[in-house]
Amino acid sequence: MSDLLAVDGLGRRYGDLAALDGVDLRVAPGDRLGLIGPNGAGKSTLLNLIAGSLRPTAGRIRFDGRDVTRLAPARRARLGIGRTHQHPAVWASLPALDNVLVAARLPWGRFRAGRRAKPREHARELLAGVGLTGVEQTLAGALSHGQRRQLELAMALAGEPRLLLLDEPAAGLAPPEVEVLASLLASLPLTVAILLVEHHLDLVYGFADRITVLHSGRHVHTGTVPETRSSPEVAAAYAGVAP
Ligand SMILES: Nc1ncnc2c1ncn2[C@@H]1O[C@H](COP(=O)(O)OP(=O)(O)OP(=O)(O)O)[C@@H](O)[C@H]1O
Ligand SMILES: [Mg+2]
User: Fold this and answer.
1) Of all protein residues, whose CA lies closest to atom 2 belonging to ligand 1?
2) What confidence tens digit (pLDDT) does each residue in 9-58 have?
3) For FRET with 159, which of 6, 128, 192, 240 sits at 20 to 30 Å CA-CA?
């Protein structure tokens, strides 16, 4: 199957620091790819480069056969690249439901979800889908940290992405919330490919078909879950922390 996302020689420097250095990556439609690596490995940098909120200093990004390296984030979103952030980005002073409604009406959503005949019902369904029933009218700022993460996921899904970039969706969640997240991720349709950045390795290993490991901005490994678990390069990247 042809690649949905093709990243070649991607790099981002900050002065002397190579936050990302010559990384290649392939994601096929419907793929479940885990992206792991120690703090500062370059995971968020890679996601930000793919989403377009950060510009690369080297390399190329193609999405669905099209060079998007220089496209603005909104244009990439319109093409089908959705994302959540390491620190959830929601409109705190709006109710949860309105956050989803607004996300669906943003330029990228308008093409798909925003055209729905019953947007409020659809937004409710999206909230229910991420486990947020009964808090539709609660201001996003009053939701718990875990609920804000769930809300941001519903907002990303409102744009009906073909590629969803998730940056540490389990960070700060209590163990029962991680279980809810795991079943939610497992329930997402194969029409969306998912690139999951996560330090919660059990979650990644349970979810992903393939795992890519970054260390100090470099690609050190891509393989299946068993290959990753037994990889000496991965063990070295975590410097004694068993992955
Ligand atoms: N705006 C910036 N200016 C300078 N250095 C930066 C900037 N953003 C990131 N870096 C550096 O780039 C490297 C990669 O950072 P990045 O946030 O991508 O890591 P990460 O793998 O997401 O880490 P974590 O698991 O802690 O979220 C780190 O050394 C970080 O300090
Ligand atoms: Mg990060």
Assistant:
1) 14
2) 999 999 999 999 999 999 999 999 999 999 999 999 999 999 999 999 99
3) 6
DSSP secondary structure code for residue 144 in this structure = -
Taking only the tens place, the pLDDT of each residue in 208-242 is 999 999 999 999 999 999 999 999 888 888 875 54
φ/ψ bin of 131: left (φ > 0), alpha (ψ from -120 to 50), beta (otherwise): left
The residue type found at 88 is P
43 lines ligand 1 (CB under 6 A): yes
Domains and CATH numbers, the chain: 1-80+162-243 (3.40.50.300), 93-160 (no CATH)
User: Given the DSSP bridges, would you call strands 66-67 and 58-63 parallel, antiparallel or unpaired?
Assistant: antiparallel
* 96 C-beta closer than 6 A to ligand 1: no
CA distance 98 to 104: 10
Pairing of strands 81-83, 163-167: parallel
Query: For residue 20, which ligand has an atom nearest its CA?
Result: 1
